[in-house]
UniProtKB/TrEMBL annotation, chain A:
The keyword Transmembrane applies. It comes from the Bacteria. Keywords: Membrane, Transmembrane, Transmembrane helix. The keyword Membrane applies. The chain crosses the membrane at residues 7-27. This is DUF1574 domain-containing protein.
TrEMBL record, chain B:
GO terms for cellular component: plasma membrane. It comes from Algibacter marinivivus. This is Membrane-bound O-acyltransferase family protein. The lineage of its organism: Bacteria, Pseudomonadati, Bacteroidota, Flavobacteriia, Flavobacteriales. The keyword Transmembrane applies. The chain crosses the membrane at residues 6-23, 32-58, 78-97, 315-338, 371-388, 453-477. Keywords: Acyltransferase, Cell membrane, Membrane, Transferase, Transmembrane, Transmembrane helix. GO terms for molecular function: acyltransferase activity. InterPro entries: Ac/AlaTfrase_AlgI/DltB, AlgI, MB_O-acyltransferase, MBOAT_fam. GO terms for biological process: alginic acid biosynthetic process. Signal peptide: none annotated.
Length: 302, 479
């Protein structure tokens, strides 16, 4: 028994040393990311007046640098492609925890996909894994069942296979990041074929997910508690305006939250050259849409 | 409690310390500790079903004692049937009640009679199929006078509920395991380290191989109508590795854990995917169940000592019953039937005992013929697994049809490079260790300690890395 305990302890010591050497990989991982916005948030370097939250539409349709120039508010875009509202709530929570709360939040609404189960919109765990050295991120991963409690004690349990991709990730040529975190489409993809969509199907709240409605309520509550002005923005699509969703959306909105819909009478939004695809504006379209938001802020500021 | 959980990581050392340091000098107390630990282990999932295990154990203990003093054949038979009815009654009610009701209703509907189904919302107690067969084997062996009935109720309760193999086997025979509870257990350094190694390999199989294959197998099976034939085939292969890693991994952890407490359990898997024909596969897959059916069903039916037609009948009976044992679904029954069909040509041509030795014994690599035989056996098994994994028969048929379509010739849409690297590593290690009880039993054993420790640390590192994501419960828990 003595030998068993002795060699067992020695082996665990040996393993402990190897285990701790993995910390190097964990510490190095964030630096290899092309998108380091969440890292800056966690490091407390995201002290801005205005923050944009949303999915890819938020990233490409709203130009934070232009918003900054037009409103005079230091602005930054923290929208993530393919993310849903639960993820946006997490980003806001993290932002407020580690930085000075912004004065305004622009929350881009993914129209009728916002609250239903849409497979292309997910909680972007892939953005969290490279940052698992941060306890805040690790706790979130544990909470979501993506890591277990061992990760509180062992570096190896925090490691993900993405940590072993040792080369820097490539940038996207169609919508690269600008210096304000936005990702406007600057190059057309000729393989993308899309036509004007006549979307007349009425919105059905029966398909809404409780988790997403809760996340939206929590975002509103967080803004209210931290004295942040929440402005929800409904962007254009290369399709008809669906008023049934907007009616439903207004019901979910708290009185202190504001909302703005793109100018449905603006003919630009019916022209294909202002779009990259069915639901994303090209940079020229994004510039028009951002100006509308700037005007709204200037005219409706507290 | 799951073997791959943090709870178990705390539970196991705690029981180990109490067992070897506090109750070391008293076998009875050690056995009581094992019973309590087993009940905690089981109750962690649902304490209400503990009563079922205790009742089942006490019934068989009492019947065993009665059988000792009973010489009259009819009365002995009645006692045996009481045990069978009680045990299979519980199993039938919890596992098969709704299946029979549903099929009864469907059969009536077919003839135009509509009857109201009276199904119940029944939870299947974890491990009921395993411990029921274990305790039944005791009564049958006592009835057949192959085993002396025990007077030691503590040992008997410990035997039925022994936590390492309680919920998913190996299904131990009373003749092997029960006597080990009567004698003083001695701690052996080599047995304990060997147990640790087997636990490590079991965890690797479960967490690194099975759980990672499950991610892709689940995606492909759940969306089978939108994938090409080649992808569906890849999905079936991933499931083949998932179920092997999952179940044999569990068995390895169970056997390794038992060794830590001074017990020796029987080997449950002997590298089945290196089999050269289906008969060999079934001698190497879930050995404790196959031999149970062989001894308590196949041989009583006449086994192979009867005419050809009866032999064929017996083979179909044991394979179909084995399929039904796995679950109350036609997919499992068909899976059993299909394996019987695979077995049939070997039986008729009297080739079912051709490959009794280990493949490529004393050689590094197999011959081309052996590779071909292994590939055919693996493909047949993988196709059968489709029925095992599918939601229902319609899903299984659509999946099989999808595989045998022209799109089989296209490149699979799912090509996870990381997983393929892991699978290649896994297959190589399993091949190297195919003559042992588990793959890493003697691997690097004679090499310097540093080398061994680096290898074990590497396995542990992979287990840690993969343990956080996509953790799945053990497949065989549902049986």
């Amino acid at each position: 028994m003595k030998s068993f305990l002795k060699y067992g302890a020695l082996f665990f010591l040996f393993f402990f040393i190897i285990e701790k050497s993995v910390l190097f990989v964990l510490w190095k991982a964030p630096e290899l990311e092309q998108d380091r916005r969440l890292e800056f948030v966690l490091e407390g370097e995201m002290n801005k007046d205005l923050i944009v939250l949303g999915s890819s539409k938020g990233a490409s349709n709203i130009l934070a640098s232009q918003l900054g120039n037009e409103t005079g508010l230091a602005s930054y875009n923290l929208s993530y492609e393919g993310s849903h509202i639960v993820f946006h709530h997490f980003i806001l929570k993290t932002l407020i925890k580690h930085n000075t709360a912004p004065k305004k939040i622009i929350l881009l609404i993914d129209t009728h996909y916002q609250f239903i189960n849409e497979p292309s919109l997910v909680f972007r765990y892939d953005r969290l894994y490279p940052l698992s050295k941060y306890n805040h991120i690790n706790d979130e991963l544990i909470g979501k069942g993506k890591k277990n409690m061992l990760s509180k004690f062992f570096a190896l349990s925090r490691v993900n296979r993405s940590n072993f991709q040792l080369s820097e990730k490539e940038t996207n040529q169609y919508n690269p990041f600008d210096n304000s975190g936005s990702r406007p489409y600057v190059k057309r993809n000729l393989k993308k074929k899309f036509e004007y969509l006549d979307d007349t199907e009425p919105y059905n709240p029966e398909f809404e997910l409780k988790e997403k409605i809760e996340a939206f309520n929590n975002i509103q509550k967080l803004c209210s508690v931290n004295d942040i002005e929440l402005i929800c923005v409904i962007p254009p699509n290369y399709s008809t305006y669906n008023a049934t969703f907007v009616e439903r959306f207004k019901v979910l909105l708290k009185p202190e939250s504001k909302w703005v819909v793109y100018d449905t009478l603006n003919s630009i939004y019916k022209q294909k050259e202002y779009y990259y695809d069915q639901s994303h504006l090209f940079k020229n379209g994004a510039s028009v849409f951002t100006s509308e938001i700037s005007d709204f802020i200037k005219n409706n500021s507290n | 409690m799951l073997f791959n959980s943090l709870d178990f990581a705390i539970f196991l050392p705690s029981v180990f310390i109490l067992y070897w340091f506090v109750f070391k000098r008293n076998i009875k107390l050690q056995n009581v500790l094992l019973i309590l630990a087993s009940y905690v282990f089981y109750g962690w999932w649902d304490y209400r079903f503990l009563a079922l295990i205790i009742f089942s154990s006490l019934v068989d203990y009492a019947i065993g004692k009665k059988l000792r003093n009973e010489e009259e054949p009819i009365k002995r038979k009645i006692l045996l049937w009481i045990s069978i009815l009680v045990n299979l009654g519980f199993l039938g009610f919890f596992k098969y009640y709704n299946f029979f009701i549903d099929n009864f209703v469907e059969a009536f509907s077919f003839f135009g009679n509509k009857i109201q189904p009276n199904t119940l919302d029944i939870i299947l107690p974890v491990g009921i199929s395993f411990y029921t067969f274990q305790t039944l084997s005791y009564t049958i062996d006592v009835y057949k006078k192959k085993l002396e009935p025990t007077d030691d109720v503590i040992s008997f309760l410990a035997f039925v509920s022994f936590f390492p193999q309680l919920v998913a086997g190996p299904i131990e025979r009373a003749t092997n395991l029960l006597p080990q509870f009567y004698i003083k257990r001695v701690f052996h350094f080599s047995a304990a380290t060997d147990g640790c190694r087997q636990i490590l390999w079991g965890l690797f199989k479960k967490i690194v191989i099975a759980d990672q294959c499950a991610v892709y197998a689940n995606t492909i099976f759940n969306n089978s109508d939108s994938y090409s034939g080649s992808t569906l085939f890849v999905g079936a292969i991933f499931f083949a590795f998932q179920i092997y890693g999952d179940f044999s991994g569990y068995s390895d952890i169970a056997i390794g854990t038992s060794r830590l407490f001074g017990f020796s359990l029987k080997q449950n898997f002997a590298f089945p995917y290196f089999s050269r024909d289906i008969a060999e596969f079934w001698r190497r897959w879930h050995i404790s169940l196959s031999t149970w059916f062989r001894d308590y069903l196949y041989i009583p039916l006449g086994g192979s000592q009867v005419g050809t037609w009866k032999k064929i009948r017996n083979i179909f009976i044991i394979f179909i019953v084995s399929g039904f044992w796995h679950g109350a679904n036609w997919t499992f029954i068909f899976w059993g039937f299909l394996n019987a069909l695979y077995f049939l040509p070997l039986l008729i041509r009297k080739q079912n005992r051709n490959n009794l030795n280990i493949i490529a014994q004393n050689q590094n690599l197999p011959t081309f013929k052996e590779v071909f035989q292994m590939a055919i056996t693996f493909c047949l098994t993988t196709l059968a697994w489709v029925f095992f994994r599918a939601e229902n028969m319609a899903h299984a048929w659509d999946y099989i049809k999808g595989i045998f379509s022209f799109s089989f010739l296209s490149l699979p849409e799912v090509r996870p490079t990381n997983l393929l690297v892991l699978l290649v590593f896994f297959i190589i290690v399993e091949w190297i260790g195919r003559c042992q009880h588990y793959a890493i039993e003697v691997l690097l054993l004679k090499k310097p300690r540093l080398l061994k420790w680096i290898f074990y640390s590497f396995l542990m590192a992979l287990i840690f890395i993969f343990s956080g994501e996509s953790q799945q419960t053990f497949i065989y828990f549902q049986f």
